Amino acid sequence: MSVHGVFLLSIWMLCPSLLMSYQAPEDKEDIFTTRACPALLVFESVAYLEDMTIELPCHCKPEKVLSVVWYYQKYLGMMDTKVLTDFSGTAIVDSSKVGRDLELRNRFSIRLFSLIVFRVQEGDSGHYVCGTASGEFFYGYDVDIQVVREVLFPWNLVPLKQKQASEAKENVNTPFQVFTSYWPWSLCDRCGVKGEQTRVGLCYVMSQHLQVRYLRQSSNVTSCGSSAVPLRFGLANSHHRAELVVRSCHTPCPKKATTVSPERKGLLDFLGYGDPESPGLSVHYHNHPVGSDLVLSCPGMKPQHAVAWDKGSTPLYRSEFMEGLKKSSRMFIDVGHHLHIRLVHLKDKGSYFCWIQGKKAAEIKLGVYSRVGRMRRISDPEALFILKNILKVYALLTAVFLLIISVRFIWQVRNERRASFHYY
Fold it and tell me: What is the dihedral of CA 59, 61, 66, 71, to 10 degrees?
């Protein structure tokens, strides 16, 4: 490798560490101090779907504060408060290893004072406050994480709408009204080929009796799971859930940019980027053991983005691979745009492409290997399978042993009775 190549490689390897240790220059204006903090701590109400990765910005803080700590409470006034800190941004979270069963403390990161929570779950709903370790509070959120009740495709959309209309007529005389508020249709998630569009519908409630401490776009409307909704409404344990609507689409790809210069093409090849004709397509390598579950995330995706997945040249459409659509499917896509592979097989290795906003964003080269000599945990599927079979064999041997003992005992008793009979 030439001296020039070694220099570029060194700069490339140092970039992540330089970004992690970044501090704003003192002569630059701190954009986080341009917004005044409220005199009384209030909470901005926001709602998202389960499995999405969300970002909560700390909209205001004093200029002297160089790092923040986030606090979490399920309900205000509870003694059980979780302190969310990643030691000034030095903790690195690998989103591909973030599972639904992990606690909140293992699924977050703080970047430039914003709290990023990976794969939020319904239990993550509650109050999040940006502050300092000394107990100063600056800004708060009331986060409502909603579970998708049903994924709607064109073939099951009409019956559900008729059912919702009948339910709305029944609730006319209540002090509140429940309805579904839809996000705009996403962009077509692929270009040049058949794609899909998604539309998120979240559960909202309209009432004149909402709590005033929560900030909302409309004074009398908030999400169904918000703490601004009075408990007497009975929505906390209701059947109201979010919706996800999916439909087909087709959009042409934009014209390709001008030809890449030879110098830029050589640099992209050296840094491991894919096709020089698509300089924005990054390549990622991941090795995974056989027999365990895998979750793939598209780098750079956000909740409002349209995301699609391909395995090689085969598109993975939601109409075939949506979570819950086929109970026996090993590969599926959840509502947060993550690609799941259950109990990875050797045949699952290969290239996986993800699209963001209708453009190919990344290629993930998946390698699959067999584990040798690994310490297994009792919770591993393989360990549970082996343990179950060992217990079955042990129970069978125990039953055979007891049967032999019983037969031998009966045989001895009969012999003793015969001997005593001949004696008399």
Answer: -70
